[in-house]
Amino acid sequence: MDTITAIILAIVEGITEFIPVSSTGHMILTSRLLQFNEQSDLMKTFEIVIQLGAILAIALVYRRRILDLLGIGRKRDGGGVMPRSRLNLIHVILGIVPALAVAFFARDFIKSLFGASTVLWALVAGGILMIIAEWVNKRKIRVTAEEMDDISYGQALAIGLYQIISVLWPGFSRSGSTISGGMLTGVSYKASADFSFLIAIPIMCAASGYELLDSYKEITGDMIGIFAIGFLVSFVVAYVVVILFMRLIQKIRLTHFAIYRFVLAACFWLFVMR
């Protein structure tokens, strides 16, 4: 791996990690285009490092909410009472435990599914789910959670269960499944995206930390510079993308991402895999 390859992969990771297009899928497809073995130990370790850069970015964006959940930094009101956010750690636990449990017990099976053809089908299937979720949310379901603080325990658990799809099907997109799951259970698009980004922090930290225990030896002295560049580039790009996405969320619908997924899958099938 050279510096240019590292920067390209880090940019792809930063752009795709938190928007519903599948970062795993893009990393596999990008590695194929760069003729880089995505199953090599070096590549797996590099992906973990740049994911940690993206995690740091999202943690920085949601730092106030994280502190609030931990009971740190809240100011007392005029009566001396500490205000509480209706979203608490139980919501987060309900949103992450199903996926973490499946990932832990089905780890080897999930790894066996990684591949370009699996990703292409996942891009299409995920896009279909996103279109359905947006249509149902607008026309068939009464939205009961306009903001993240309005999300119920049941909705948080449902989002966590939908997240399992992305765990078992590489390329489906974690954010795509969670945002769609939220919208199908009466959570607004914005609140679903907010909650999806928030629960990404603990689940990605757990997953990346666990994987790093197996592959940290790849971070050797002559590779530290490239890993550091990848981490920094992923952090900066992910931070900018999340800020822009949340500002433009009312203009960029799930259907737009679904169409992109269909086009990407078709182009890759026609021009790369055939």
From TrEMBL:
- Principal place of residence: membrane
Q: Name one GO cellular component term.
A: plasma membrane
Q: Which reaction does it catalyse?
A: di-trans,octa-cis-undecaprenyl diphosphate + H2O = di-trans,octa-cis-undecaprenyl phosphate + phosphate + H(+)
One Pfam short name? BacA
Please verify whether the record's keywords include Transmembrane.
Answer: yes
Q: Which residues cross the membrane?
A: 7-28, 48-66, 87-106, 112-132, 153-172, 225-248, 254-272
Classify the protein's membrane topology as the record does: Multi-pass membrane protein
Annotated EC: 3.6.1.27
Keywords, comma-separated and alphabetical: Antibiotic resistance, Cell membrane, Cell shape, Cell wall biogenesis/degradation, Hydrolase, Membrane, Peptidoglycan synthesis, Transmembrane, Transmembrane helix
Which subcellular locations apply to this protein?
A: Cell membrane
InterPro entries in the record: UppP
Family per similarity comment:
Belongs to the UppP family.
The record's section on NCBIfam families has:
PRK00281.1-4, undec_PP_bacA
Q: Which HAMAP family does the record associate with it? A: Undec_diphosphatase (MF_01006)
Q: What is this protein called?
A: Undecaprenyl-diphosphatase
Source species, please?
A: Paenibacillus durus ATCC 35681
Task: Recite the lineage of the species.
Answer: Bacteria, Bacillati, Bacillota, Bacilli, Bacillales
Gene that this sequence comes from: uppP
